[in-house]
Design goal:
One of its GO terms (biological process) is carbohydrate metabolic process. InterPro entries: Glyco_hydro/deAcase_b/a-brl (IPR011330). There is one protein chain. By secondary structure, this protein is an alpha/beta fold. It has 10 helices and 20 strands. The N and C termini lie far apart (105 Å).
Amino acid sequence: MGKKLPILICILLLLVASSVLIKKYENPTNTDSNNDVKGNTTDICKEVEDSAREQISLLNVPRKWYIKSPETLEDNIYFSLLLPQRDVSVKYELNGIIYDAIYNKDKWEINIPIETLNPSEYKLYINTTVCDNSISKSFSFNVSNPVYVVWSIDWEGLDVKDQYLNEMARISAQYNSPMTHLFNPYIYISLNSTRSKYLTDWVKNRDESIGLHLHMYDKLIEASGVVVNDIPAWGSPIGGGHDTPNSNYAYDDYKKIITWAMTQYEKNGLPTPTMYRAGGWYIDEENINVLKNLGFQIETSGRTYYKHGSNLLEGPWNLKETTQPYQMNSTDQNITNSPNINIWEYPNNGGDSWAYSVETLISRFKNNYAGGISQNTTVVTYISHPHWFDKEGPKIEGTLKYISTYTYSSDSGPVIFTTLDKVHLNTVQQ
């Protein structure tokens, strides 16, 4: 035992000495250990932070206005930052709710689908943390339901001066407002073949929407194989049955009249009509049922209460200036909330440029859209007549000029100029 004790003490001393050396190696004393060294963590953080600041400074929301409409839903808000995943965190705050950005293939992505947002004003705040430093930027934008404005043209079945056609085309192009042509095949009776073909080609070559508009002219009624019934009439200087209400004709006769008109469309290369407006707005539930059974999808004679013509004939409608498109009721065309027939009413709620001043036409627009974010999808439909466009042109142009200050295309609001058939029924509020 006496000899082993010194050996054990030596071994113990060697172990202690080794432990001290290891600790000294792991934690060497170096007065410059906190200084930046090329390639260390501090330097890498600085490089990433500089890149983040530069990229975030370039971010912008592309638009101030976003619309919840099928034509515009591709305009989602999207950002990407080319930054590493390690030591980086990217979050965004939307009206007080915080979300994590997604890291995907060497970049951080923020994608905000407009269709998921309610109509509102939004504040967007993007925050990127690199190591322990934060870089941020804020944005604002609006999300609204669309305000569709439709400029419809009632063709009366008479000739139109070329200068009026040119003026219509100019206004349409200047305000990017396509026309919905409610075309009248009476021209194939009232005009020679050369002129009727010219007007037909003019409308077809516009490549816009074409529906049907009929006045119950005596010659048209006779051509369709129906006996003329022109009492009552609202009283019109044009004469010849122009002022005979559609509603003078019962189901079977009216079906013959509409079928004749659709045949003229086919003969002259016009598309099968699915939209209809009655002359003088005079139409009843029996007529509307004929339209539905012949495949029409939209009726657009609805309007406010009125008496019309020199005879002050009472009209069949009593809608409001603010009535929006509604699926119709077969027993009462003015009921807006009890649909039982597969045809939609798109009221002439904007008024017509023949009867109303530009001030009234603009007032109708304001009554339907008060400005700012629209909580509901809104449709405003106007009527013009090409035959009297010397009087009507300045009024509809003044109206469209005012409305154009709210357009989505200029990023100034939710207004979309469109045609009647391109208003999306499934987005219209009842």
